[in-house]
Design goal:
Elements (H helix, E strand, L loop, with lengths): L1 H13 L1 H7 L1 H32 L1 H19 L8 H20 L6 H24 L1 H7 L4 H5 L1 H24 L10 H14 L6 H8 L2 H17 L1
Helix pairs in contact: 1-3, 1-4, 2-3, 2-7, 3-4, 4-5, 5-6, 6-9, 9-10, 10-12
Amino acid sequence: FAAFFIVYNLDRYLGKSEDEENMPMRTRFVKRYGKSFLALSIGVFTVALFMAFNQGSLTFLLTIIPIVMSLLYSVLKLKKILFVKNAIVGATWGVIPLLTASYYGLTFRSEVLFLTLFFGISFFRSAMIFDIKDIKGDLEEGVTTIPNKYGIDNAKLISVGIDVLLISSWSALVSFGYLNFDFLILTFFHIYVLAYISVIHMDTGELFYSVIVDGECNFLGILVFISGVIGAI
């Protein structure tokens, strides 16, 4: 939580100028409370670093990866380079399963490694979808993205292709016994994602992105919870 709390607040604070065009409501909030939230996130992250260090060198290393990625993304402005923005977002969020598993000494289990790739690629795709909303602001700030370079339709087509690749990958792994049948629940996750990709367009509102697109992981969490309840019955 601490690692991604500071990543989110740092990016929001440093990206105010871009968000002013893309997400004016959020920009007003950041201008008013941004410094306070950034200070709070730095404090929480400092405590988390001490906890991670006591847990072991691997957990400590995995904890600092998100903040390093955030510095590359927001401070060094590597997000202006085509595909680099998406890759950094994917790598930052993809580390979550590894970080969680390292606490329990399960880092290199096949399921954990798969989830690392799955979330990394999923967030690569999500960043591409968010770039549709950000086309105007990104162009003004000199940020090159897939939607503003190749067009919205091509960006959506690539996003669908990524999801089809993910579906094919985990289906094959389940079929050959490398993953258990619990992973079939991802079917509903992909239906959710493909549904919102199909309706998104240039003028889709900020609320849709905040609730539906950003909410894809909440939806997945609900699916996992339901699966756990059913499995316990």
